[in-house]
């Protein structure tokens, strides 16, 4: 009879239609580049990368960028709309996704991991097609804004040297990739403006400019506080040409 045969054909067709599509391995290279500077890698503990399916939130891959900051000349002297900036040694996170259909992928970036007080989180999205690797050019490059600011002084409890509650503030500042700020260098100290602000109960009490002292990235100055007490200090750094900024903060008790 033809009926059983027809049933078998229909059942086979349903099984084929309901079977999951075969996944294709797809290579992906993600790089994180510091605003105004180079790639973020081993020198700064790398940046954490999490790749997710943008529709379901499923984690497809995660890891940390590893490698060097890249070729300074190739990065900083690049021109054109989509220049090739990465050399083989430039820090990257490399993975392979098993995709069965075109997938919108969200990349979450957090770093630099060795300077948590300066770390920032950014996200980026793109379509990834099964079997079409994301490795051309520099791969998937995501820019991370910010500057790394470290308050070296004052200590949490300090006494003013002159008895007038004047404290000395000293900081170390660099790019997110660890690139140095120097006098007349590629990242010229003249382009950076640092300020310290003291707050009490959320109210601005005093502020002052921090001057460049020496390379790499050492800035400092004195701040006169009006009375004894506990203050929250914010030190901000800003590139006056690009607007790139960074902040560190601490508290200080002036007896």
Describe the structure.
The protein is mainly β and 255 residues long. The protein has two domains: 121 residues, Immunoglobulin-like; 108 residues, Immunoglobulins (Immunoglobulin-like), CATH 2.60.40. It is 9% helix and 47% strand. The protein is built from two helices and 14 strands. The strands form three sheets. Strands 8-9-12-11-10-13-14 form a seven-stranded antiparallel β-sheet, with no helix packed on it. It has a four-stranded antiparallel β-sheet with strand order 3-2-5-6, with no helix packed on it. Strand 5 and strand 6 form a beta hairpin. The chain is elongated and about 75 Å long. The protein starts with a helix and ends with a strand. About 2% of the residues have low confidence.
């Amino acid at each position: 009879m033809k009926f059983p045969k027809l049933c078998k054909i229909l059942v086979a067709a349903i099984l084929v239609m309901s079977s999951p599509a075969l996944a294709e391995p797809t290579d992906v290279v993600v790089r994180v580049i510091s605003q105004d500077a180079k790639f973020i890698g081993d020198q700064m503990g790398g940046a954490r990368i999490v790749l997710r399916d943008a529709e379901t939130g499923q984690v497809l891959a995660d890891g940390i960028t590893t490698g060097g900051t890249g070729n300074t000349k190739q990065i900083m002297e690049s021109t054109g709309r989509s220049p090739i900036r990465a050399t083989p040694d430039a820090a990257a996170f490399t993975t392979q996704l098993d995709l069965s259909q075109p997938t919108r992928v969200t990349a979450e970036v957090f770093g630099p991991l060795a300077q948590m007080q300066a770390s920032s989180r950014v996200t980026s999205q793109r379509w990834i097609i099964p079997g079409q690797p994301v490795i051309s050019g520099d791969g998937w490059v995501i820019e991370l804004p910010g500057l790394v600011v470290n308050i070296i002084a004052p200590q949490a409890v300090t006494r003013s040297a002159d008895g007038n509650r004047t404290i000395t503030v000293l900081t170390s500042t660099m790019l997110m990739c660890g690139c140095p700020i120097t006098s007349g260098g590629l990242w010229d100290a003249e382009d950076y403006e640092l300020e310290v602000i003291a707050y009490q109960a959320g109210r601005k009490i005093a502020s002052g400019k921090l001057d460049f002292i020496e390379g790499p990235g050492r800035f400092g100055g004195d701040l006169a506080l009006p009375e004894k007490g506990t203050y929250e200090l914010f030190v901000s750094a800003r590139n006056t040409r690009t607007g790139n900024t960074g902040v560190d903060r601490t508290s200080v008790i002036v007896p």
